[in-house]
Prior knowledge:
Layout: H1 2-18, H2 26-55, H3 59-78, H4 86-106, H5 113-128, H6 130-149, H7 160-211, E1 214-219, H8 232-237, H9 257-272, H10 277-282, E2 288-292, E3 299-310, E4 316-324, H11 326-353, H12 357-379, H13 385-406, H14 409-426, H15 433-466, H16 474-493, E5 497-504, H17 506-511, H18 514-532, H19 536-541, E6 548-557, E7 560-567, H20 574-583, H21 595-601, H22 622-632, E8 636-642, E9 646-654
Parallel strand pairs: 5-6
Antiparallel strand pairs: 1-4, 2-3, 3-4, 6-7, 7-9, 8-9
Helix pairs in contact: 2-3, 3-4, 4-5, 4-6, 5-6, 5-7, 6-7, 11-15, 12-13, 12-15, 13-14, 13-16, 14-15, 16-18, 18-22, 20-21
Amino acid sequence: MAEEKTGSFLAxxxxxxxxxxxxxxxxxxxRYNILNIAILAGGxxxxxxxxxxxxxxxxxxxxxxYAMAALCFIIIFLLRTKLPLQIPGGIVVGAFGxxxxxxxxxxELRGFASLWIFTFPLLAIFVLGMxxxxxxxxxxxxxxxxxxxxxxxxxxxxxxxxxxxxxxxYFLVTFLTVIYEQSxxxxxxxxxxxxxxxxxxxxxxxxxxxxxxxxxxxMNREYVIQGAYSKPLENILGTDKIEGExxxxxxxASLKAKERDIFIDYLKMVLERQFDASMLEDINPIKEFTYxxxxxxxxxxxxxxxxxxxxxxNDFYVLGTMEDISATRELxxxxxxxxxxxxxxxxxxxxxxxxxxxxFGDFIEDTEYEFDHINEILKNKSLSAKDAMVNIYQSVHAIxxxxxxxxxxxxxxxxxxxxxxxRQYRDGDDIxxxxxxxxxxxxxxxxxxxxxxxxxxxxxxSFRATTGGRxxxxxxxxxxxxxxxxENAARTExxxxxFFVDQLDETILEHGPRRVIKEVLTQLVRNSVAHGIETPxxxxxxxxxxxxxxxxxxVREDNQIHLKLSDDGKGINLNKIREKxxxxxxxxxxxxxxxxxxxxxxxxxxxxTADATNLNAGRxxxxxxxxxxxxxxxxxxKISSEPGKGTCFDLFIPSExxxxxxxx
Length: 664
């Protein structure tokens, strides 16, 4: 232990002595170290030389050597003051130059004297720098040339060969020293410039690392995060306890165990550099994922990138970056919603302006009637939740049917989706308050859509009123509505169908239950197209015209309103109805053999023989709606059908309804 302390003391003393007890740049420390060594060595040698010449009897020379030695020790002291290096260094170099001049002038170049002259340029340029050191070196060169070339000036006579060698060697040493020093200065300048650039780049990288909203970090082969990570990583991960933790520890709430294993396998591929950078980026399993904070369960959408960094000697690390893009994705979602909303509004406007205002106005009135009816259903406490759902389902289906007629695709699709929801609740075991609330909220959204239509049609009506529009005609509205219903359904079913009106009593529409008449006839027209009329190829095989025919008559007979709608299609398939009724357990096997029972079962809610559900058929609500609307008016319905020839629906409404308002 004592030896270690002694060694440490000596090392500290030597370091402190050579550096003059001050901390400087590396270059300055080197100059001070060499100067201290040179002066100390020179001082000791001068003491030895002075003693030697004094013993030989040359007292004056001994005094001179002792004086120079004393000057060296004084310079060592001055190097430990705050004086700049050039002052004590200049004194040393100047004194050394005078001594070398004396050596030349007296001719005492034996021993180390000539070697000292040759070391002068090295010491002068190294200690004082290129410019001042070179001036001192040139001055000594001039002195050497003067005393060796001009006869009589020196204490001895130099021959030409000796003078030439002395001058030549001195010049060569000076020249090489200048070359070396210049090279060193150029190198130091380049190193300084590179260091400056590196510092600037380091500062820029540090600023970017800490100020850009991107978390950067390094992981070793055990996927442990190192200490040199950027500050934004703490905000992204929601904690400042990051260093020394495995990356997977932060993902326990975000990824399942199997997903974390896949991520670890991916990091192995990154470390082993099995693929190029672009492919590794493409197969990143968490390139963009929902991050869940382990501590507060808050979520963010994070984008990640991983690459390999070589720390030297094949010591590879994984460089990872994380960026919180939640705000970006939320903005994109809102922009997409706005774009979709604008597209829908433009499409709605385009669809509305193609519909006759009278027909569209009729649609708005009927839609508002159905919404009023739905409100009454929701307020009716005597109805069970299931019955309320059935009635709401009928009204929504009626609105959808009317929207389809006018070609309002967006509106129809929203109603179609709402039908799916209501049917799911209706067919469930129990209807909860939340179910009713959900349906109510969706209905409110659709009502707002309807209000937009009202605004559009009011603007169109206002424009046409100023340009001399025409009066509304109930007959025209009804026929146009049914014609469009037939046309749209035929297009959807890929069939050819013509709609024809044989008879129409205008007074019935003017004073009778116009809304109910239009609603039930619309359902029957769509039903005939979907279930009755065959495809063109099927009709040709049966020897019929490729275009099917639907005929309508509305007349008064025996104090009744008689609505007759017939088609020349394939007729009602009783066998298919029987199979479906037995499947749904709507009829027993005995009752299913009765044709009358089979014709009645098609009016049951949810009953349909369609193989697939679309906007026109498959819900099992159309004919059920017809029966319920007729019940409200105490009406009745009769069906007659003949296979291969067609089906006829005869609807009868009591004549007293003729005196009711047409908007009833």
